[in-house]
Specification:
Number of domains: 2
Helix content: 55-70%
Order of helices and strands: HHEHHHHEHHHEHHHE
Strand content: 5-15%
Largest sheet: 2 strands, parallel
Structural class: mainly alpha
Radius of gyration: 19 Å
Oligomer: single chain
Bound molecules: iron/sulfur cluster
Length: 237
């Protein structure tokens, strides 16, 4: 039931994407910064960082339109796409991108905020939207399960930073918890995980924290022994 609800929210988010996609754009934030504007994407990315200090990556698992599209592409290509090498690329591109934005902001003495800057609904807007959708679709079609989340997502690093910051400051946040004694090693959690994480090994080790986990709760809901729980708590030391 919970997963049906999650998928319903993801579909809704995907349907709303023609309206919201410029507010999640890695490009518009650069154009805005070049013109001395702190735009809607910049504000939303900042809010996502703050939210993740308590909500971890719930946005990715439950609300991200790009994630929604990828989950439906996985029906066509269910290939596992998850390794340190594949995951690190998003941090490299993110660092270059954010450094450039900060550089542009610093060039302007009078940085002003404008949530809707550069957003104009016209034919050109929807052509750009269509191109972005095709690119996300094609990338995931080649890579497999949430390949873009692992290798290319420009929003994920903001949330991973929020998670690390919360742990550093001992702020309780949303996380999974394992009851290793209840696990029968059936491997269902590994099969269900859209991020291709080795959940079984995580459960056995009692180490459920992973910066690639999107808190979708597929592993929790699919476990026949209820060996995985979730809640808001501090990092175990
Ligand atoms: S689905 Fe549950 S019982 Fe099966 S391996 Fe995963 S944690 Fe263990
Ligand atoms: S470990 Fe569980 S909650 Fe995290 S991404 Fe995988 S299935 Fe979702």
């Amino acid at each position: 039931m919970r997963q049906k609800f999650r998928k319903g929210i993801l579909i809704f988010s995907l349907l709303m994407f023609p309206i919201t996609f410029m507010l999640l754009s890695p490009f518009v934030i650069v154009v805005s910064a070049a013109n001395g504007v702190l735009n809607g994407s910049a504000m939303i990315f900042g809010l996502l960082l703050l939210f993740s200090m308590v909500g971890s990556r719930l946005f990715c698992g439950w609300l991200c339109p790009g994630g929604a599209l990828q989950e439906y592409v996985a029906v066509v290509n269910d290939r596992h796409w998850n390794s340190k090498g594949k995951n690190i690329s998003k941090y490299i591109t993110w660092t270059v991108w954010v450094s450039f934005i900060v550089y542009l902001w610093l060039q302007n003495d009078n940085l002003k905020g404008d949530f809707m800057y550069f957003i104009e609904f016209n034919f050109q807007y929807f052509i750009i939207y269509a191109i972005v959708m095709v690119l996300i679709y094609m990338f995931t079609l080649v890579t497999g399960r949430r390949g873009m989340c692992h290798s290319l997502c420009w929003m994920a690093p903001f949330m991973v930073i929020g998670e690390k910051l919360a742990d550093f400051l001992h702020i309780p946040r949303f996380r999974l918890m394992a009851k290793a004694d209840d696990c029968i090693s059936c491997g269902q959690c590994n099969k269900n995980c859209p991020m291709c994480l080795d959940v079984l090994t995580m459960v056995e080790a009692g180490a459920m924290d992973s910066s690639e986990c999107i808190n979708c709760l597929e592993c929790v809901d699919g476990c026949p022994k209820k060996a995985i729980a979730f809640g808001i708590c501090q990092k175990h030391r």
